[in-house]
Amino acid sequence: MKTTLGRRTRVLAATTATAGLVLVAGCSSDGNGGSGTKTAAGGVEVVKAGQLTTCTHLPYPPFQSEIDGKVQGFDVALIDLVADDLGVKQAIVDQPFENFKTGGSLNAGQCDLAAAGMTITEERKKNVDFSDPYFEATQAVLVDKKSGISSFADLKGKKVGAQAQTTGEDYAKSKGLDPVSFESSDAVINGLRTGQVQAVVIDYPVVQGWLKDKANAAAFEVAEQINTGEQYGFTVKKGNTKLREAINKALKDAKADGTYKKLYEQWIGPYDESAASASPAA
């Protein structure tokens, strides 16, 4: 999740549950989002009548990114299901990751929830409430095939890149590395492509999607996939129990009726039962 500051926040609104989202406004201070709480189905309060406002940070494929002028991805599709249950439409606000990692955007009433491929951690739980886990995540070491790097252990003494303020960066530091920080997943991978770094540590699903391109797969490879025990969750303002429960219900229903599996295969790749077996967030 990149942390570009000084960039105008963009607000995007949903078209359909599967088609994604389209740009409708140029800045976050439109005067509507903070006009008072409204009530959706089930007594869930939303910051703007008729919509479920989601904070994210673009791009972070395959979870959320702009494709053909629309914001689409796995997270987008799952939150569309929540919006449908509440009888509203999803709208997306693109902000720096730090804004909702700390709960700032939620506390300020700029959005109802955050969906950004965010790992559930004890530190983040101090600032926000997480939904049940919806995705089992691992880290990957991505390298040029000519690098001679075949494992994480080979990174010692190498110039390694990672996305700023992510668990990938934290993991690299915890193992004694001093990674070069990049603002986004795109920037990290571009740093590897252009030779700024010799390897990157990044969420495996991002790499998985990037390597679907034959040209990328011809030149780069995953040296090692690292199971760090990470799980992704959606976040709400602390104490927003009704919305948290609505998100959990939508996730449970999607797993039960096959919708989750369908969306997983559409956006992530071959379905693994472990992706749906995550235990509820504490």
Automatic annotation (TrEMBL):
<dbReference type="Pfam" id="PF00497">
    <property type="entry name" value="SBP_bac_3"/>
</dbReference>
<feature type="signal peptide">
    <location>
        <begin position="1"/>
        <end position="19"/>
    </location>
</feature>
<feature type="domain" description="Ionotropic glutamate receptor C-terminal">
    <location>
        <begin position="51"/>
        <end position="270"/>
    </location>
</feature>
<dbReference type="InterPro" id="IPR001638">
    <property type="entry name" value="Solute-binding_3/MltF_N"/>
</dbReference>
<keyword id="KW-0732">Signal</keyword>
<feature type="domain" description="Solute-binding protein family 3/N-terminal">
    <location>
        <begin position="51"/>
        <end position="271"/>
    </location>
</feature>
<protein>
    <submittedName>
        <fullName>ABC transporter substrate-binding protein</fullName>
    </submittedName>
</protein>
<dbReference type="GO" id="GO:0015276">
    <property type="term" value="F:ligand-gated monoatomic ion channel activity"/>
</dbReference>
<dbReference type="InterPro" id="IPR001320">
    <property type="entry name" value="Iontro_rcpt_C"/>
</dbReference>
<dbReference type="GO" id="GO:0016020">
    <property type="term" value="C:membrane"/>
</dbReference>
